[in-house]
Amino acid sequence: MTRGGYSSIGYSMGWTPVVRFLIISNVAIFVLQGLLQAEQFLSIHFGLVPRLILTKGWIWQLATYMFLHHGFMHILFNMFALWMFGSTLERVWGAKGFLRYYFITGLGGGACYLLFNMNSMIPTVGASGAIYGLLVAYAVLFPDSVIYLWFVIPIKAKWFALIFGVIEFVASIQSSDSIAHLAHLGGMVIGYLYLKRETFFARLIWQVRLHKQGHEVRAQQRREKYLDGVRREVDEILDKINRVGYDGLSPAEQKKLKRASEILRKKSSR
């Protein structure tokens, strides 16, 4: 439960259209899955199975895995979080903006899990990648709104998201359970990058330009150093000409003088 910012408005106004559609869709599929006793079939064909995506091209699994769940508590937690954070975010962004973000984080979480588990045949299901993405978005937009952990402990949204992010990061490295922590973490990271995309890409472009400018400066310094060496060689040869005349130069020195003169002439003509 939360208070502050848009959250109190969100609860008083009920469900938003996209959130309602997503919750109903997830619950309907979960009920159908139980009635048909088809959890294994659906998990293999529509859950996220990395090896099948890579070997058979079942790319749709990156989207469909978000609509399947293992167990009542799994879907209960995800749908509650979807309602709690999603309703507020949909009112801020509108239906299209919210749905776009939801799928970007869900797909991003799935892709992150796929990247680090390419040979796995274990199905991953659940909307958690997108849900953790919603948590990040809520924390970015309403950092000081209070979330009641376990309905008792008040924590500001920014710290709540940070705590869960650290937990998922540590769990993705150390945990051996069946939870797809990398999908959760991937949803958070992709969501944050998406929200900060303008700042992120502006900084990236600035860094690229700075690196390019630095490369150009270093290249110019190398050219100047090379030309200084050529000038020193020419000065030495000219000094020798003053002493012994041009005919006193060796063939190698005459050739070097000619080449250096061409280089300096080209430099001065630019």
Give the gist of this structure:
The chain is mainly alpha-helical and 270 residues long. The chain has 11 helices and 3 strands, in the order E-H-H-H-H-H-H-H-E-E-H-H-H-H.
N→C terminal distance: 70 Å
Runs in which pLDDT lies below 50 for 5 or more consecutive residues are: 1-12
| Rg calculated over all Cα atoms | 32 Å
Order of helices and strands: EHHHHHHHEEHHHH
Helix content: over 70%
Number of helices: 11
Determine the CATH superfamily of the largest domain: Rhomboid-like
Structural class call reads mainly alpha
What would the CATH topology of the largest domain be? Rhomboid-like fold
User: How much strand?
Assistant: under 5%
CATH A-level architecture of the largest domain: Up-down Bundle
Q: What number of domains?
A: 2
Spatial arrangement of strands, main beta sheet: 1-2-3
Main beta sheet strand tally, sense and closure: 3 strands, antiparallel
What is the CATH class designation of the largest domain? Mainly Alpha
Descriptive labels:
270 residues, mainly alpha, Rhomboid-like fold, 2 domains, three-stranded antiparallel β-sheet, 76% helix, elongated, disordered N terminus
